[in-house]
Specification:
The chain is α+β, with helices and mostly antiparallel strands. It folds into two domains: 2-97, Roll (SH3 type barrels); 103-407, no CATH class. Helices cover 49% and strands 12% of the residues. The chain contains 15 helices and eleven strands. The protein has helices at 2-19, 99-113, 120-127, 134-146, 173-185, 193-208, 241-246, 250-265, 268-274, 282-291, 298-315, 320-337, 342-357, 369-386, 397-404; strands spanning 22-25, 29-33, 42-47, 51-58, 61-65, 71-75, 79-80, 96-97, 218-222, 229-232, 236-240. A five-stranded antiparallel beta sheet has the order 6-5-4-1-7. The protein has a three-stranded antiparallel beta sheet with strand order 2-3-8. α12 runs parallel beside α14. The longest helix has 18 residues, at 2-19. It is globular, with a radius of gyration of 21 Å. 44% of the residues are buried.
């Protein structure tokens, strides 16, 4: 059904291109980018119910022009053909937020939240700039895409019958995500731009042709020999150097990344935060933060408390139900990207062994050793039931070794 809906929307948008029709933004905030991909730099954010003139289309991305003549690319799933009558008309000043204003709002909360860590928020925001183009990604993903995998499209995310995630939709995901990411990054990042670029291109390869194509994922490597990984709201993914060293090929590393992508997709962090909300007006809180107005308000204090609680949840053992759900989703994502889904099985089995045999390099905050074994058994059973080992998908062992050898 989702494929049909996207195809129908794509056809409608293609017709709109020829007719120069107008579509409307349907989300509270809609990212406008320099190119047709979530890895391109942000041009700005478009408010809900803004009229957009369609200029061109490339895959699932649409080039549009705003009423103020600003031009950029927006995800097709951010558009609707009809204008909402329930939304008041917007002035030119409120329909558009510049990258500078967005960055200031995000950085404002981040710097207040991550006190005593000067420059960390800036560092995280700099890593959010991926530094590769659509042509670069196409070349990187070529072998994976062209591999004659018998597991590609064998299972879709819709086949998993996942319930809709329940979370407080008014939470300012981007601001909270950057703040938590900055706190985690304060533990120390690996100073290897090539490795970060490699992981982010693998991440984009997984996400680009999925329902998550418009999410701006950023992968960072922590300089920690222990085995650990984190997914943070707004698409920030952390993998320790110790976990990278446990991988033997790119499909295993892709499985690790896809697992963390799944946490973001299912809003696991926001679900946990939402359980702790008593009352909050996030818009008012962030207006205060942006204005840097004296003493923190009640809303500000609650947001900071929620961010603290989310951080603690992220860096300590997570719910096993979230982890096994993320494993299933991750396996489907890597298989449909063209990677070998059994790579996730292999790395899960290795991590489970290490948790028992070499506990010194296993971070118990990542998961409990018994949970690691349970996860390994469950993802193995899922993969055996749903995928085939006959032409299973690309592993990219040589490229993985060439890029990661300096870090081993």
């Amino acid at each position: 059904m989702r494929s049909f809906s996207l195809a129908f929307l794509a056809l409608a948008l293609c017709s709109a291109t020829l007719l120069s029709e107008t579509f409307y933004s349907k989300r509270k905030g809609n990212a406008l980018r320099e190119g047709a991909g979530s890895y391109y730099s942000l041009v700005g954010s478009v408010a809900e119910n803004t009229a957009l003139l369609v200029l061109a289309r490339s895959g699932s991305w649409v080039k549009v022009q705003l009423p103020n003549k600003q031009v950029g690319w927006i995800a097709a799933n951010s558009l609707t053909a009809g204008k909402s009558d329930q939304m008041a008309a917007r002035s030119a000043e409120t329909m558009w937020t510049s990258p500078k204003a967005l960055s200031a709002a995000i950085k404002g909360f981040g710097e207040k939240y991550v006190q005593g860590e000067p420059g960390i928020v800036d560092s995280v925001l700099q890593y959010s700039e991926k530094g590769f183009t659509g042509e670069d990604l196409a070349a990187f993903a070529k072998e994976v895409r062209e591999y004659p995998s018998r597991n590609r499209d064998r299972v879709e995310l819709d086949d998993l019958d996942l319930p809709a995630p329940e979370y407080y939709v008014e939470l300012p995901e981007q601001q909270i995500g950057v703040s938590i990411a900055a706190r985690i990054a304060g533990k120390g990042l690996v100073n290897d731009r090539q490795l970060h670029r490699y992981l982010n291109m693998a991440c984009a390869t997984i996400a680009e042709h999925s329902a998550l194509y418009d999410v701006d994922f950023t992968v960072l490597v922590l300089n920690d020999r222990k085995i650990n990984a984190f997914a943070v709201p707004a698409g920030y993914i952390f993998v320790t150097l110790g976990l990278v060293r446990q991988c033997r090929d790119e499909s295993e590393l892709a499985g690790v990344i896809a697992h963390e992508i799944a946490h973001v997709y299912r809003r696991h962090g926001l679900q946990e935060m939402s359980k702790r909300i008593t009352h909050i007006r996030s818009d008012a809180a962030f207006r205060e933060l942006e204005e840097d107005a004296g003493e923190p308000t009640e809303e500000e204090r609650e947001l900071e408390t929620l961010a603290d609680q989310a951080y603690e949840k992220i860096v300590h053992p997570r719910l096993l139900s979230y982890e096994t759900e993320a494993d299933r989703i991750g396996a489907v994502l890597v298989a449909n990207a063209g990677y070998d889904p059994f790579g996730l099985v292999r790395i899960s089995e290795r991590v489970a062994r290490v948790s028992k045999e070499t506990p010194g390099v296993f971070d118990a905050d990542y998961m409990l050793p018994d949970d690691a074994v349970k996860r390994s058994k469950e993802i193995s059973a899922f993969a055996e039931k749903n995928f085939t080992t006959d032409s299973p998908g690309e592993q990219m062992s040589k490229r993985f070794t060439a890029v990661t050898s300096a870090s081993r």
